[in-house]
Amino acid sequence: MPMKLDALPDYLVQFDGGNVKPVRDRWNWGHMKEGVSSANFIAESYWWDGLNLSLYRPAPPPPLVPVSKTVYVVLGNRPLRLQSRILLRLEFERPWAQAAYVQQPWDPSNVPAAAPAPPPQKPEPWAIGLNIKVGDENDVDTEARVGATCQFNSKGVRLNVPGAEEKPYFNTLPEIETPLNYESFNPFGQPAVPFFLELDFTGISQSTAPHLSQGTARLEVGSKTDTRIFTHGGLYPGGAPSHITALGAALVTATGVGQIMARLSSFSVWVKP
């Protein structure tokens, strides 16, 4: 059963306030930290009505590897047990993607002297993701994690749970929004369409196979909603880690080439340890 949202969150960061410091922090985790993955790309962030994340990858020689611009709360000396019940909720808006690199405002130090030439490939597919993982603010492709994503692909927008046991079935489900039209989410002179992504995670469960967690992912785009109920072994590769050490969000692409971006508004966490 999904965790109810009628209670105040245990942890809350309102990015539209202009910082990564929590306004609620029951667990004394402290402020969120920005991070990246290690690969050849340009990552930027700036404050304007929220935390705006941007990532540009030029066309590298194959194979392509996942790249991300992230923001996580690292749990430090207050990690969570694998058996915990955790609900993450991310509000974001203004998703956008383009082939050419365009310098983003307020962070000229991240811009190279000569901007890369536009690549022939497309930026899709790419995603905004929520992750529960073992690690820190930087993403490493091999680290243990469970996540849910709002994916933008050539057909439209869809809810994904990468690595879920039910992936073959999930792949048959339609997009929540189609066709893909970034301008419809960013109407000129009007409020942006809000996106809400949720990851409701239950750790080790006696009702599933050994070393499988379970949960529910939910995506809301304007007035449309989609849900996935899943089981997942992502926190148990090669033996289960002892604790969950980071919670957060990522702007990410595995195969896309070009520039992707989105504005984060808030990040919330509810915990039943």
Descriptive report:
The chain is mostly beta strands. The protein contains two helices and 17 strands. Strands 1, 2, 4, 5, 8, 12, 13, 14 and 17 form a nine-stranded antiparallel β-sheet that branches. A hairpin with a 4-residue loop joins strand 10 and strand 11. The longest helix has 4 residues. The model has no long low-confidence stretch (mean pLDDT 88).
Task: Record keyword descriptors for this entry.
273 residues; nine-stranded antiparallel β-sheet; six-stranded antiparallel β-sheet
Number of strands: 17
**Major sheet description:** 9 strands, antiparallel
Low-confidence runs of at least 5 consecutive residues: none
Listing every helix as H and every strand as E from the N terminus to the C terminus, the arrangement reads EEEEEEEEEEEHHEEEEEE
Short description:
The chain is mainly β and 273 residues long. The protein has helices at 167-170, 182-185, and strands at 11-14, 24-25, 33-36, 42-47, 51-57, 67-74, 80-81, 85-98, 126-133, 145-152, 157-160, 195-202, 213-221, 224-232, 243-244, 246-253, 258-272. The strands form three sheets. Strands 1, 2, 4, 5, 8, 12, 13, 14 and 17 form a nine-stranded antiparallel beta sheet that branches. The protein has a six-stranded antiparallel beta sheet with strand order 3-6-16-9-10-11, with no helix packed on it.
